[in-house]
Amino acid sequence: MANFVADTQVYGHPVKGRGAWSMEYGSLKKFRLFTLLPAPCTLLITLLLAPCSLLFAQTPKAQELYAQSIKLFGERKADEAIPFMEQAIKQDPNFTDAYLKLGQLYEFTKRYDPALAVYRNAIKLQPDSPASGAAYQSLSNTLLRLGRYSEALPYLEKYQTMFAPQSAQAKRIARQIETARFAQEAIQHPQAVDPKPLSSVLQTTPSQYFPVLTADEQTLVFTALKPEGDEDLMTATFNGEIWSPPTSLASSINTPENEGTASLSADGRTIVFTACQGRKGFGSCDLYMSHKTGDDWSSPENLGTPINTRYYESQPALSADGRQLYFVSDRPGGKGRRDIWRSERNATGDWNEPVNLGEPVNTPFNEASPFIHPNGQSLFFASEGHIGMGGYDLFVADNSASGWSAPTNLGYPINTSEDQASLFVSANGKRAYYSYEEQKDGVSQKSRLYTFDLPESLRERIKPVTYLKGVVTDAKTKKPLNASLELIDLKTNQVVSRLQTDSQTGQYTAVLPSGGEYALYVSQPGYLFKSLSFDLTQKTKGDGMSLTVPLEPAVAGTSANETLNNLFFESGRYDLAEKSKTELDRLSAFLQANPTLKVEILGHTDDKGDAATNLALSQKRAQAVVTYLAKAGIEASRIRAVGYGKTRPLVPNTTDENRQLNRRIEWKLL
Predict the structure, then answer these.
(1) Residue 382 — φ and ψ, nearest 5°?
(2) Is Transmembrane one of the keywords UniProt gives this record (predicted)?
(3) CATH classification at residue 534
(4) Same domain, yes or no, for 513 and 411?
């Protein structure tokens, strides 16, 4: 194979398990057989090909068989090498190094039980001698990798006594002991998850991995390994019941080389992905971006500096609004080898200098595959530096004003003794998507896309978001518009997100964070802006909404009335609440941008109370708006206030909800 997506992995070894990664492309191309090496056996090739450092054979025949086995392995004939090493041990039962090499050959060919047996035999020869250290190391590493933690602990504890307490080796073993104990505890308290294959219709290639979805979970993009070894980005759609057969994302993106580890914006119209060869880039792997208009993706652009460098950049994670980019890099200035970095997009559309997330997220070891939830706070990522169940585990950390929280291990069986790769969590925080390597007899077979319901313990800490999707059209012609949308926090008057509709279809998807009050403004030059209001302070579920937004042409005397949905008054009063400032400033800016237009501000009430009192109240509320606009610099001759009381209801005054709709301030062009 060419390699699992453009070097989405860790230097020097493949990452197995839930989510298929692969080793560095160049190394794989040199000697593909080496990719089968178990991750913890970092010195296996050296041990097999270099002169032995343990006990030598006591008989020439044993040494001859040993040398022949090493030669066969060097020729990529591991299975043929095993009988010679077995014979070497029969010739010399005290040949410690032959036991060690045989165990490593068994591991190489995925025969783990025989490997464990010969490691134990090597230890029995000299259980207290430092000469058995390599056997202790190989045995405990293999047991940890197989998830046999209770068996590994006694060997690790014995092995640790062979080193000075503060030595680097003793500290490494202490970390493995901590891993084994953590894993034992996690297995005793498993998470309530039941992973299931996403859909067999998606399995059109030998393997699929790294799934990402839109906010509505109806568009899926993933990396597919094709029979010829090429990796492409594929897409499929969900109609509420079944997934469509996957197709190539775009001929402008996929090439005969590898593309993968993509990140998708909430609306599915911006993608960032990794490519490590076949394109002119800055370093070993670079990040590229493409935008979708209608059904067509643009030609990918290298993100350039300061995102890409001569070092490794991969595994992007784009925030829901496209304004932040998380990614993995081994550039200088990090905490370890590969760290998670973040860059923000400025007002001009350029990416700022990336910042290392630092502690407690990054460690002196490798971090990988970040995913920032649409809530903008929950960061999921893989790490081999935080204590887990061995190798790479999945973690979540939360961002707040005080910084990142200490990462939380997602627990068993989301994490296992195998390496876990990326995780995608839905906007509503209910589901997770990932890739899982189906295995047979302990050997990885095919990587498939899986999904599971997030357990309650994790769902409680993930702040869900709501999404609003739909189409912006011309109210008269019904044609789609290329409109701008701005989501503003009414409490702070700060822009939460900005986005643009598809210029061909008028489609949009906006993410609405829970726990606040928001104004959403939809605007296009030549049209009246549309004001929408969302009170999500009590909303705990991230259920999506669909809304077609018709914009009225800004033509004097012909436009329909528009409701100012983000004006707020105390009951029975006409004083504008502070959070009304967002709406009033928006209206003021519109009038300043269109100096020839004149408007009428219309006040309305429901049917409760005295008619004359309601009429007066509606007039005073409309006048309060006019007064604000005048203070903002709008000429008095261009604005007037009219109160209509209860005489013009939008809907019948039959329910509290309807009465709330009827209590409103509108504006129209004169």
Answers:
(1) -105, 150
(2) yes
(3) 2.60.40.1120
(4) no
